[in-house]
Specification:
The structure is a homotrimer. Chain A is mainly beta. Chain A has 6 helices and 26 strands. In chain A, the strands form 5 sheets. In chain A, strands 1-11-12-13-14-25-21-20-17 form a 9-stranded antiparallel sheet, with helices on one face. In chain A, strand 13 and strand 14 form a beta hairpin. The longest helix of chain A is centred in the last third of the chain and has 15 residues. The first copy, chain A, starts with a helix and ends in a 9-residue tail after the last strand. Chains in contact: A-B, A-C, B-C. The interface between B and C is large, with 38 and 43 residues.
Chain lengths: ~400, ~400, ~400
Amino acid sequence: MRWLFALLFTASGVHAQDEFRQTLLSVAENRSAQALTISSKDVTPNAAHPWNIEVKRLHGGKQEGVTLVIVDNGVLKITLIPTRGMGIQEVRRAGVRIGWDSPVKEIVHPQFVNMTARGGLGWLDGFTEFVVRCGLENNGQPGPDRFINNVGDEASMDLTLHGKIANQPAQEVEIVVDKKHPFRITVRGIVNERMLFGPKLELMTELTTTPGAATFQIKDVVTNRGAGPEEFQMLYHVNVGKPVLEAGARFEAPVAKVTPYNKNAGRDVATWNQYLAPTTGYVEQVYLLEPLANKEGRTTILLANQAGTHGTSIRYQVKELPYLTLWKNTGADADGYVTGLEPGTNYPNRRSVERQAGRVPKLAGGVSYSMSLEFGVHLGTKEVDAVRAEVQAIQGDRKPVLVTAPTPRIP
Amino acid sequence: MRWLFALLFTASGVHAQDEFRQTLLSVAENRSAQALTISSKDVTPNAAHPWNIEVKRLHGGKQEGVTLVIVDNGVLKITLIPTRGMGIQEVRRAGVRIGWDSPVKEIVHPQFVNMTARGGLGWLDGFTEFVVRCGLENNGQPGPDRFINNVGDEASMDLTLHGKIANQPAQEVEIVVDKKHPFRITVRGIVNERMLFGPKLELMTELTTTPGAATFQIKDVVTNRGAGPEEFQMLYHVNVGKPVLEAGARFEAPVAKVTPYNKNAGRDVATWNQYLAPTTGYVEQVYLLEPLANKEGRTTILLANQAGTHGTSIRYQVKELPYLTLWKNTGADADGYVTGLEPGTNYPNRRSVERQAGRVPKLAGGVSYSMSLEFGVHLGTKEVDAVRAEVQAIQGDRKPVLVTAPTPRIP
Amino acid sequence: MRWLFALLFTASGVHAQDEFRQTLLSVAENRSAQALTISSKDVTPNAAHPWNIEVKRLHGGKQEGVTLVIVDNGVLKITLIPTRGMGIQEVRRAGVRIGWDSPVKEIVHPQFVNMTARGGLGWLDGFTEFVVRCGLENNGQPGPDRFINNVGDEASMDLTLHGKIANQPAQEVEIVVDKKHPFRITVRGIVNERMLFGPKLELMTELTTTPGAATFQIKDVVTNRGAGPEEFQMLYHVNVGKPVLEAGARFEAPVAKVTPYNKNAGRDVATWNQYLAPTTGYVEQVYLLEPLANKEGRTTILLANQAGTHGTSIRYQVKELPYLTLWKNTGADADGYVTGLEPGTNYPNRRSVERQAGRVPKLAGGVSYSMSLEFGVHLGTKEVDAVRAEVQAIQGDRKPVLVTAPTPRIP
């Protein structure tokens, strides 16, 4: 993939001498990640904001063999997991952690996750991340769906919850730091789902941040490396627990319409964007949202605590990720007190339902699809209020339609 | 879990300076086990009985990456497998091995075991142990059973043979040696089955032994780390082959009732506790037993060879493990000549059958369940006779009821 | 297995002092393969043809932990994969690669292959090899088949595509080099599928070659290590893409009869042994062949490019591998442009179909079955023509019967 990277750099006008570059793990170079520290004093001594990157290997129990890349830009400390499809375990700012306390306490190596187990729910055995991608061949609820088999016939297979990508180890992972202002830090990787008689989908992902910033960006490019057309799905499952999530916390998003996923969610649609304290026995409530955008096509969504002193936001192009799902799962702390903000190419219904609804994009052979998201961590009412104002400006005077009955699913 | 350990120590009046402590592998400390030898001459030079502990990593074929802890107390040499849920591969005393010759010749790393394969029988791909725990979410025969899914509905999943715990690598494994008489040696570990929308069960296991003893103890504490109530199952599958098992060997246990598992076992209920020589084509015979206890609630069960010169015993509280299963599988040597003594919280029927019969315990949130067993290896007729007398004393004049027809299973 | 090796050597009259021997990975010796180079100048300084053997460990993505053995005999460079059941990734001669470009770009470690996924097609996630064995318990299409379970009853299990052997890591892998002319190089390994209540099948495989030769030999011995009779299946899936495969390339084999696998193959039976250029949307065509042999029982099959300048051949005893399958899969380059030459103990139908047709051999307890194949790489019309003449000599004036309708499958 060297040529691809080279291409991207050329396109953006950056030259090799202007950047620091370190390959962490690579199929092409036959290399795996070693413990490593890269710091501003060595690479960018002139940078105003010191930064630091730590690469480490995890040991013990089910985390044996997992590699982490921890990017500290001086404000945010972002923990990436190349071994789990380049997911993000957590982000910290000034002692505030954005992430959640999963009942799973290890960062689980894919070798210990059997996605087909539990009727296709085995994915949950490794679910701990702040940001976990769901895809690429499929995401959403497990269950049967059709596919074309080797002899060209339509056959049926059991799709597994949220697909494979989060349990595929990345390759061609590298760190790049611009040596000139604003000293941008990039962590890149490739994760693939490729096989004969199946998808040939490749994800090229870049996380970028700038020293001193309270934001970071993800740019993902999914490419169909096959010759023929291929469906794909992508959903960013962004999971937040305490301290942002709490009783009275609110999800703020400009939306045209709110539809409950099922009857249980329908009952509480009036409070769809408000949260309870940890509640033993709470059964998840899921809302399917139609997000609104500003004139540039961009939307902003925000989760803020009750007092409006802690918040986390995502900004992205609605055209790239037209469907937004809110997962409220405010059960007991011990069971996983969490909410999921989930921009996607689709809703997390079974793929067959989404296809029927026209929400499963198809890529022609060789064609790519890009998705960019900016994540922010906001501390203090001033910062949080500014983002809330952004959300409100997009909403304007368009009132969201609250639907009380779930949409019937076919099939 | 450090606080939990600390708590246990405080409770038993042991202080840190009185003990040697070595962490082997730990999620908390991000450490995996290295080759290591710990010996009495360094740690307890005053101990009358020399002892030795060896930690090693296995290589080659399907055992690649497995860690063993071999505790030699001067009399018994006990081989523990942290990588396989803290199971025990074998125990040796004076050249006599307690264990069996599985057709599986490697100590298989969980990465090579797909429990869902073969209609839920994939567990057998790694089955080699003397003591293997079956649980925690379920044990027994594979097959469909209901569970509560993420949206609060009752759904169905295919349970796999004997559950997951034997194929979960342990964490927080440490060796502790008391520096004072009787210089007790402890190997501790934590194994978990935790997930969102699933069990949050944690096993804290301790194996203890004393230099010079022909016995060792297991103390297991299963804790429901979830907030709500959760079923669990535990069955100690204790497997013995030659030289203890042979033609004319006998299983000696104080029992109230013997019920065959199926018609095939029913045919030979009269000889339920006697063994054949290796017999090509032998089809397993399983007996469900109601064990009797002494006044303290304790029972003793024994397997002894024909001459009564070799024996292995288990002593435990019947209240903790009320159901006892005897698995006779005296097929050809090449096919696995073995018998299983199986104290459990249940019989190894499908979980749905056991639930129906009221034999699936439920733990409230945060609640623990303890099980303690003492294993003995007995050489010479004097030692074996003493244990047999113990068994007979518990049986007394209570005659076991031998049932010839299996109990119908619902569902 | 040391005794077995010793036995073979004694049989062939080779003494230890006459050979160089290096264990690479071994369960018995608790050893895994390290990076290593062995070369003629150190081991056989008198050899006319220099040779070299490189052992390496792969890193990055899904190839993390895979071991390769690359045998360069001075003419052929053969890449073996002990971690994937001793398969052969590719063979190179004078810059010509014999192998194919799978959509899977890594040499995938078995830990990342879930054979039960995708309705039993998960095997495809790791399919990249030039020579991949399909077996041992089963091969062919996935689907339900009966087996005998632990209680002696006939039960049903879902077989997975092409069985397990390609995803089982080898043990007892060693390199042996004769120190005397012709300085034969051997790479040996054992791969097993052994379990309680299941197959106890063991494959002992040897790849041999001679410095300076354009051929290599595989000798495989499958042994039933169980006491009772056991079915087995073996199919050598030999996969070739560019540059040998191209528009106008031909498969040359002496055959009595050609039967299409399905209607799609039936349509083009007249051109069953001719190939198209990469064709987007091409649906595989499979032909079931009855190979002819010479007086010694040996057959020769050849794939050659259009100009007859590049070819690869297999010579073997038809009695050992009586059924030959030709898989034509000349889809787009990006989708995997490849053909498979597949000598086997059976055709790759579902095992139940093959059993019904009497094509599933059974081994009595302790009994072995040997299969030997010689692979050649041929460059230049002279070499290719010589092999073609061999094929034609076996065919003689016996005209192949071309059947146009597939054989109905029962069940």
